[in-house]
Design goal:
The chain is of the alpha/beta class.
Length: 697
């Protein structure tokens, strides 16, 4: 019996943990953590260890499928790759011929690393429309912080921090392999821990200061922190005087956010707010960890990211060791979202200007992120600003992943043509005309640099793909050839070598080392004499934003749906609903059919305070109806004494195993996709209103 071990990285979530893959007789048999990986240090999570179950699951799609019968039906038949790619090529080219290249949108989910390859494909095809959920996962952080200091606030140096501030961020469940080792190192060295979260997570209960904030009031709290720090002269005077602009305007702006007023808004105690603010200012260096979802899913997400960046700046923690670093991927302009691939950056200006969302969110033309899905839906549904007729979705279960699922399903159903690339059938693939089966991450070569700090990692193919599954990069190579896009890469290896060119290595050379890193630069602004902003300084007051109709200072805005924003609705729906907290067992809506994972988390759960539940006659583990102004779903009560009695939390992503489960179990049947953050297009799904009712059996 032949056994081999391959060092690689796991692609089941964005942590990209180091793994050692065990293979016997050509089949994956085990996944273990790589103790030498510089981020994960041997950690693996349940979904990473379930790789073999995923690969060899009997329901895995292993042949191209085409829909037969009605487009609204669910019947598919197997076909050849040549036929399937031929249909896709014909439909995309026909759409370009009749409606223009911009009538085609290709989207992806939040993992699998396909963004650069899709963007290159779209550039050659002529469409500026790459769609991704960046507006609800990371994009607002990048937009807000880059607009303020020229880089994204996504690389906290936890291991060297004297104070760790986790804002709407629970890395133990969402990013354990990337962040938890460094957080533990920082805490071992004596770092203080501040957690801002409405839920009593494990980290919240360990914190020196846990601020159990009312969902949707985060900006008010940050502005209060800033006010306290300025009023008590706890800011870094030298940094503020030399490297910021607009301090006086900021000081005047935040002066009304007193602890008393903030306590009324946030439901926190004045003394708790003050203690946390003093702790953050006193314990330097301090690093802020903004939640990729928690900070990015609000109607004021841009202002929240701006405010957090300003907080880091005035305390001298930007680009400081132990603060928030500015890490540039070793692949530089050829990184995952690098400008060398971006269709928006490489198309003629007239065509690039057609990027969906640019008319409504002009900042995405200066700090490019993908088109928000909510900017694509009107083009499909109403032809505004122009018609979108065809789309492709890679690893993207839009119907369950995006808010207002019924609307999403109706929109995708109205396309002339949809193709999907996914391991398993989902409520979204059911709407497709063609389904293509991709290779699993253990079945393909790849490199990873997205959010990997100053590293690029090599993912090495350990086993041959299950016939007839194909690497998504190979799918795009083959489709480009079929469509006559002759300047696309000729092979997967050529694409990988092109991406690695800035490192001076080929993929084969990277494979020998497994990783490549460049030195971390501290206080790069001193070296270069400026920040990458219009003024060359940190824009505390960003005058240039006014040209786009954006406030130059961050403002708190009450959630549109809440006790203050909609008091009449609050009478009918008297509980505040926050959604989407991570469960380490799953990644969004994927792999709900994997036995070992489903055993760990079989049902959708609503975290609710026991006193609140019992007022409705509900006991722990009872099934109940959870309703919002959009509809209702079935969910199981899970008593949590650490929840605020007026707040409940619902997990997301459940749909599998129940007839029309996407309607019955999926929390996004209750969420809303309007009103969006006016700058980033972020969706307001962290602060909604709801009611509960016991299901009578």
């Amino acid at each position: 019996m032949s056994t081999t071990k391959t060092r690689s990285i796991c692609f089941e979530c964005h942590s990209r943990c180091g793994v050692i893959l065990e293979v016997k007789n050509g089949k994956l048999t085990g996944v273990k953590g790589d103790p030498d990986h510089p981020h994960s240090h041997g950690y693996t999570c349940p979904k990473g260890r379930a790789a073999a179950e995923i690969i060899y699951h009997p329901d895995r799609i292993t042949k191209p499928l085409i829909k037969v019968g009605s487009r609204t039906g669910k019947m598919f038949e197997e076909t050849s790759w040549d036929t399937a790619l031929g249909i896709i090529a014909e439909k995309l080219l026909a759409s370009r011929e009749k409606w223009g290249a911009e009538s085609v949108v290709i989207g992806t989910g939040t993992t699998r690393g396909t963004a650069p390859y899709i963007n290159r494909f779209l550039t050659l095809f002529g469409s500026p429309n790459f769609m991704a959920p960046s507006n609800m996962s990371g994009g607002p952080i990048v937009l807000g912080s880059a607009a303020t200091c020229g880089f994204g606030l996504v690389d906290p140096d936890y291991a060297n921090s004297s104070c760790i501030l986790l804002w709407a961020h629970n890395p133990e469940a969402s990013w354990p392999g990337l962040y938890m080792y460094d957080i533990r190192e920082g805490l071992k060295k004596g770092a203080k821990l501040i957690v801002v979260d409405p839920r009593g997570t494990k980290l919240a209960k360990k914190a020196d200061h846990w601020l159990q904030i009312r969902p949707g009031t985060d900006v008010a709290l940050v502005l209060c922190f800033i006010n306290i720090i300025i009023e008590n002269k706890l800011y870094d005077r030298e940094f503020v005087e030399n490297w910021t602009t607009g301090f006086d305007q900021l000081k005047g702006h935040v002066s009304s956010y007193t602890p008393k007023r903030c306590a009324e808004i946030t439901w926190l105690k004045e003394q708790d707010i003050e203690a946390a603010a003093f702790c953050f200012a006193d314990q330097r260096p301090a690093g802020i960890g903004p939640g990729m979802a928690g900070v990015c899913q609000a109607n004021d997400a841009f202002d929240l990211s701006r405010a957090l960046t300003i907080l880091s700046a005035i305390t001298g923690n930007l680009e400081a060791k132990g603060g928030n670093l500015n890490c540039v991927p070793p692949t530089r302009k050829r990184s995952c979202y690098g400008p060398d691939f971006s269709a928006f950056d490489n198309l003629p200006k007239e065509q690039a200007a057609k990027k969906l969302g640019l008319d409504r969110f002009p900042l995405i033309g200066f700090i490019p992120i993908p088109s928000p899905p909510q900017a694509v839906w009107p083009a499909i549904e109403h032809g505004k600003p122009y018609p979108v007729k065809a789309a492709g979705l890679f690893a993207n279960n839009s119907v369950c992943a995006y808010p207002n699922s019924r609307h999403v399903s109706n929109v995708l159903s109205s396309l002339d043509f949809l193709f999907a690339v996914d391991y398993f059938h989902t409520p979204t693939t059911a709407l497709a005309d063609v389904i293509l089966p991709p290779a699993h991450w253990s079945e393909r070569d790849e490199i990873e640099d997205l959010l990997m700090k100053n590293h690029v990692f090599c993912q090495v193919k350990a086993v041959e793909p299950v016939p007839e599954c194909r690497d998504e990069k190979q799918i795009l190579v083959d489709l480009a050839k079929k469509m006559g896009l002759n300047d696309y890469w000729g092979s997967v290896r050529e694409a990988l070598d092109y991406r690695l060119e800035p490192t001076g290595m080929t993929f084969e050379e990277l494979k020998k080392h497994g990783k490549f890193a460049t030195p971390v630069t501290y206080k790069g602004y001193e070296k270069y004499g400026k920040f990458r902003t219009p003024s060359g300084k940190v824009e505390l007051y960003a005058e240039y934003l006014t040209m786009m109709g954006i406030s130059p200072l961050p403002n708190f805005k009450e959630p549109d749906e809440g006790p203050e924003g909609s008091p009449q609705l609050y009478e009918k729906y008297p509980l505040i609903l926050t959604t989407g907290g991570r469960n380490v067992v799953y990644y969004h809506s994927s792999h709900r059919n994997i036995p070992s994972l489903k055993k760990r988390a079989p049902d959708p759960e609503l975290q609710i305070h026991p006193d609140t539940a019992r007022r409705y006659g509900i006991e722990d583990h009872d099934w109940l109806y959870l309703s919002s102004p959009r509809g209702r779903v079935e969910i199981r009560a899970r008593f949590d004494h650490d929840m605020h009695p007026r707040v409940v939390h619902a997990v997301h992503g459940f749909w599998y195993g129940v007839e029309e489960g996407w309607k019955k179990l999926n929390i996004n049947m209750l969420t809303n996709d309007e009103p969006l953050c006016p700058v980033t297009g972020s969706v307001p799904i962290k602060a909604l209103l709801c009611n509960i009712e016991k299901i009578q059996k």
